[in-house]
Amino acid sequence: MSAFLKQFELSAHGDANAPSISIKDSIDIAGYSTTAASRALADAPPASQHAEVVQRLLDAGWRITGKTNMHELAFGMTGINDLYGTPPNPQDVTRIPGGSSSGSASAVGQHLVDAALGTDTGGSIRGPAACCGVIGLKPTFGRVSRNGVAPRVTTLDCVGPFARDMNTIIRAMSAIDPSFSADQALRRASGARVGVVAVDADADIVAAINTVVRRAEFATHSVELKLIADAFAAGLAVINAETWQAFGHLVETGKLGADIESRLRAAARTTAADLDAAENVRHTFTEEVDRALEHADVLVLPTLPALPITVEEARAGTSVIGMSSLIRPFNLSGHPALTIPIPLQHKPLKAGLQIVGRKGADEMVCAVAAHIEATLAR
């Protein structure tokens, strides 16, 4: 079962009826090695203590069922892992599950668990969630503790939950973030002001989002984020530099997958000038998003610009970096962002609708998502 790397039962209360959750293998669980699904870290010593989010889940009565598979070192968008197996995409097994939190999205989509934790540095929760047809939330940067999460140093990465319904997302967030208000997240958001971001995406995905937003009866207006493409490129520069800093030493082990070794060697070429330019874009793009949110409670746009490609296409070399063109920018800016599956006309697969909120307004993002969920259920 390649959605999982290790399966076990861990509960502070011994309640077999407690909600179940799995944990991405970049998050520490005491007594188990955190290997990030890499042979280069397979001999890592067991973690001496739980990551803070894991301890909070246990304290809140969750039942942990194992550690989930992932794209090696969390450095890839396909979710393909030739060492531990590629988690199946529950929507279509011929398509990639998305990365890097592939196992978390797959396990939720297959109904193996009620929820899962993943991490999102460049879209690594929202991308696989959209591929696998589930909900995934990247909280505001810094809101959820990363103590006990790899990489240790980052300006992009966030821990967040996957689930099949918003009630479970809200319950998981309430456990891992003591400041999160479930009451606010469940508050009716039918009158929310929604800015619909104009983006380059497949016409059927854009049409599906417009249909859902119209049915939800939000007060809408169009928004243009002129710097979104620049923010995408800047986010790539930052993740390259920070991933090289965290894992570059593993290149010399000879134990990395070929794709990861190649990406790390390329990442090593990121220059100080590249990072200076990226930080300038971070500042200006963040301001642009903040300005757009002065006139809207949330922004909406596609999660992915197209449906996920097949595993065969990915193995043949089809580029997937464009998958993150609409999600990576919000890692750079630090705004909370959630993806929720929506139906496509005349297609069995669901696409992802992304909801972006003000920093710290994760509850509003969830409230809008819950309203959309209720609209789709009617």
From TrEMBL:
Positions of the Amidase domain: 21-366
Pfam families xrefs: Amidase (PF01425)
Alphabetical list of Gene3D superfamilies matching this protein: Amidase signature (AS) domain
PROSITE patterns cross-referenced by the UniProt entry: AMIDASES
UniProt keywords, alphabetically: Ligase
Signal peptide: none
Record-listed E.C. numbers: 6.3.5.7
Top-level taxon: Bacteria
Top-level class of the enzyme under EC nomenclature: ligase
PANTHER family: GLUTAMYL-TRNA(GLN) AMIDOTRANSFERASE SUBUNIT A, MITOCHONDRIAL, TRANSAMIDASE
Protein name according to UniProt: Glutamyl-tRNA(Gln) amidotransferase subunit A
